[in-house]
């Protein structure tokens, strides 16, 4: 199939762009379409709108070798045999997913396709959506032109290219075995396990996977609270739990909880799907509330410790929702900073990637009174407390003596448990982590 053209709808977003660049690197001709003209113009010049390790190089290579094209014209997908739909499914106020972008993409593709086309739905959609999309095409008399295949995505930001090239599994759902086979074939450079199943099972696998990752995080954060009460250390407890091969070490890092554009949104959507079929999502509701509580407790503890926030000078390390990305969408750092500012604190923040990316302007518009620090030391200078909100690897390497000497009050509130409490105390810091 490598001579055939593949298409991407939503080619300027995280999932879409990683797919476009990786598929081009595998030898396919890829046309990546996005509604956002500015993104497309920049991508045509190999300017990637967000940070993802290795992505810019792949995009450049794809453009140079003329395997990758970016376009703002959907007609350019009309001769593609397989199109990946990678558009957003943002949360509506009640937590359910807004499917309009997916519906529009599928219908538009069916209308413009010159021959039969497969739409592989990468976007995370509620259970039952792929079937409904297919039925809708039937009603419009377009079924013969477009086959809908559920093809949920499991890649994580910061490791997107590796996750694409060495996937843990490939899941396809649908009712057309040949189309499912084609979707698998184009994206399995390695011998990844493949699950071919129904639309509904594929959709359920995606939601249940993200919900379980979120559950592990809320679980360990709940255990962290009792750890603190007994002066235990959650990092050692986590290690002890994770060594059981039935449990595994991943997603057992206590901290501020999960944030970012996926886990929280998908969890809320999953909970609302339970409600829609008259089922309770007792565990998942708890997972959601524990995650909220984690944020409130952190801020409350800080406020109590400082005896109020008005006039306090605070430094913040980390704005992105996790290390290795400049993505600040739904990052825990934003509500924390907004709260601190609204209570009259003066806040200066540093982030190694966000500070250098277009996200900085986006954030500055939303938090105009936030000051920006060029280095972690500048963020700490003359501050009453330093808050660590993202576990960026460079923060682990800080010159702690220098940091302490620059602060007005050597108090660190570490939402990511980067340091050893005993060593920090010996260095003269007051160090407060989570579950330690
Ligand atoms: C997540 C999933 O991990 C991917 O498999 C999935 O494909 C993706 O969502 C998606 O649905 O698109 P991602 O949002 O990139 O990927 O981020 P994660 O690595 O899952 O981290 C989410 C949040 O959990 C971050 O705020 C991170 O700091 C936090 N986290 C993670 C913890 O608090 N503790 C941990 O032990 C691990």
Task: Note down, in words, how this protein is organized.
This protein has helices at 14-25, 37-44, 55-64, 100-112, 129-139, 160-165, 177-186, 199-229, 234-242, 263-276, 282-306, 333-342, 359-366, 376-380, 393-396, 400-406, 421-426; strands at 5-9, 29-33, 68-71, 82-85, 117-121, 146-150, 170-173, 194-197, 313-317, 346-350, 371-372, 385-388, 411-414, 430-432. With 436 residues, it is an alpha/beta fold. It folds into two domains: 5-197, Rossmann fold (3-Layer(aba) Sandwich); 234-432, NAD(P)-binding Rossmann-like Domain (Rossmann fold, 3-Layer(aba) Sandwich). The strands form three sheets. It has a six-stranded parallel beta sheet with strand order 3-2-1-4-5-6, sandwiched between helices. Helix 1 crosses helix 3 (55-64), helix 8 packs across helix 10 and helix 8 (199-229) runs parallel beside helix 11. The mean pLDDT is 96.
The total strand number stands at 14
Average pLDDT, rounded to a whole number, is: 96
* End-to-end C-alpha gap: 54 Å
Helix content: 40-55%
Classification by helices and strands: alpha/beta
Largest sheet: 6 strands, parallel
Query: What would you call the shape?
Result: globular
- Proportion of residues in β-strands: 5-15%
Helices, by number, come to 17
Overall domain count: 2
**CATH class type of the largest domain:** Alpha Beta
Ligand identities: uridine-5'-diphosphate-glucuronic acid
Low-confidence stretches: none
Please name the fourth-level CATH homologous superfamily of the largest domain.
NAD(P)-binding Rossmann-like Domain
Within the CATH hierarchy, at the fold level, what is the topology of the largest domain? Rossmann fold
